[in-house]
Amino acid sequence: MSSTEIEFRELVSRMFDEYIINEIPAHLLRLHPDTGPIQTIEVVDRLSLRSYYETTVNEIREGDIVPNADEEWEDAILQFIKEKIRYAILSHRWVDGDSETSFQYMQSKVEVKSLDSHVGGLGKLYAFCQKARNDFNCSFAWCDMCCIDKTSSSELDEAIRSMFRWYRNSHICITYLPETHSMNDLAREEWFKRGWTLLELLAPFRMKFYGKSWVPLRPLHESENDKCDSILQEISRITRIPETDLRAFTPETNRVQEKMVWASSRRTMRVEDIAYSLIGIFDVSLMVAYGEGKRAFYRLMEAILQRCDHWEIFSWKGSSSSYNAALPADPSCYPAVGNTDYFP
After folding, report:
1. With contact defined as beta carbons under 8 Å apart, do 277 and 196 qualify?
2. pTM here?
3. Beta-carbon contacts of residue 342 (< 8 Å; ≥ 6 apart)
């Protein structure tokens, strides 16, 4: 092996390790075996994902990397690595009867035949894993019901602050809409009214929507990625989010008013999550501190202000923050873009 080849292999190995440690969820579901029906499911750490894909990444050769015209060499390598590493991620909303599947319980290999699909959340978990394996050939998956160790404050903090990246780096985001039978029902789906699902809609590059009984809204043979399908026209109409953002959203501190409008009609169970669910959308850093109440949104606005020099951030009307009268209390204070009724 030449010195050039050795240097390339070392570079790929370093970038692979950095990607796994910094950009992949701390824990994932491992679906056993790799082929055929799923027999067991267990929670594993990100290093298990590294071990699984290590051989695949070691087979990458310099000739495999073909940068685009405006792409740096190392960026092209990283993109190639990302395309090799596959995990599915779930987007859903919590409903009455759902319960969290214990992180500790799932750490041991759970036999699928022992799962009681009538227990809240378990039926949804198993159906998601089946779609991840059967429809997208993924041996790893992630969902919020059992992949976050909530006994660890540091892991919970990392999960919330990294959520946008985790959804963005997924091979596929499987989205479950239990009240939707067809495209005609889509506008009435509660999924569009929840706070965290805004991030889950914008972050992934690839999504597949499943309705009631886990039937895809668009057949798989017609669309494996609904972000490249006509379904986005309807979603854009429902959410008032431009199709260009739905296809390839870039997190930044620009267009504050417009993004706040996207979030203004959405609800969260915890008041702090109004702010925490927007961390990735604005690409800012914010410490997680449940119990701080509405102060979380004030801190989010402070973080945005540090990097935003657009006047529109002050284009709001309504209740002001208890911590700074120049800032709004929540996203609902922002009028729709183009609405001049608020201002003389």
Report:
1. yes
2. 0.93
3. 315, 316, 317, 335
